[in-house]
C-alpha cells in the first residue's frame, strides 16, 4: 500500500471539514481549505471531486456555500476512503482482494512472498478499517487542546462550540487496541 499525495490530501481535507463541523462552521470553501492546509488549489479541486463522487462530501452553492461532509463522521471508515482514492491496500497485486492480478510466480498458492504480503494487507486493512473520520477528528481536537493551540477556525467559527469542545477535553479516550488514541491517553495521564 502506498498512500499517494491525493490520498493524503483527501484525508487532510476530510479532517479539516470534520474540525470545521465540530467548531460550528458547516461549510468550507475550497480557497480557505487550500490555504489552511497549504495545498495546491487546482489539485485540491480534483481531490474534492473524487471525494464527492465517493459520497464522502457534498457542495452547497452560493455566498454561504462550500464543501461539507455528506454523512456522519462515524460512518466514514478510513479504509473505505483510502480504497476509494488510492485503490488497493495490498503491497502487491496478487495479494489484493479488490484489485487482484495474477503474478509471475509459478506456484502462487504456495508462494511465501504472497502469503507474507497477504498478512501485510490484512494488517493494514484491519487498522484502517478500525478507525473512522470521527476518531481522527476527535484525536486531532484533543491534541490541539492538550498542546494549547489556538482553536480559532476563521472568521465564522462558533465560540459556543469551541467552549463545548474545550470542556469535553477532560474526557480521556481509550483505544483498547493500543492505536493512536492510546498515545493521546498516555500523554494526558502523565
Could you walk me through the main structural features you see in this protein, from its secondary elements to its overall organization?
The chain is mainly α. The chain has two domains: 5-75 and 132-189, Orthogonal Bundle (Arc Repressor Mutant, subunit A), CATH 1.10.10.10; 78-130, no CATH class. Helix content is 53%, strand content 4%. It has eight helices and two strands. It has a two-stranded antiparallel sheet. Strand 1 and strand 2 form a beta hairpin. Helix 4 crosses helix 5 (112-130). The longest helix is centred in the middle third of the chain and has 19 residues, at 112-130. It starts with a helix and ends with a helix.
Amino acid at each position: 500500500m502506498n498512500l499517494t499525495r491525493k490520498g493524503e490530501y483527501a484525508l487532510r481535507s476530510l479532517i479539516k471539514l470534520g474540525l470545521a463541523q465540530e467548531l460550528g462552521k458547516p461549510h468550507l470553501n475550497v480557497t480557505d481549505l487550500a490555504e489552511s492546509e497549504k495545498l495546491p488549489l487546482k489539485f485540491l479541486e480534483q481531490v474534492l471531486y473524487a471525494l464527492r463522487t465517493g459520497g464522502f462530501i457534498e457542495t452547497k452553492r452560493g455566498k454561504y456555500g462550500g464543501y461539507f461532509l455528506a454523512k456522519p463522521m462515524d460512518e466514514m471508515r478510513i479504509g473505505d476512503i483510502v480504497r476509494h482514492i488510492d485503490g488497493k491496500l495490498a503491497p502487491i497485486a496478487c495479494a489484493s482482494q479488490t484489485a487482484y492480478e495474477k503474478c509471475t510466480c509459478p506456484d502462487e498458492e504456495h508462494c511465501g512472498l504472497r502469503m507474507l504480503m497477504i498478512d501485510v494487507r490484512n494488517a493494514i486493512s484491519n487498522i484502517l478499517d478500525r478507525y473512522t473520520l470521527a476518531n481522527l477528528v476527535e484525536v486531532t481536537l484533543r491534541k490541539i487542546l492538550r498542546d494549547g493551540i489556538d482553536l480559532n477556525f476563521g472568521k465564522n467559527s462558533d465560540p459556543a462550540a469551541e467552549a463545548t469542545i474545550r470542556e469535553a477535553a477532560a474526557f480521556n479516550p481509550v483505544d483498547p487496541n493500543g492505536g493512536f488514541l492510546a498515545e493521546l491517553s498516555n500523554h494526558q495521564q502523565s
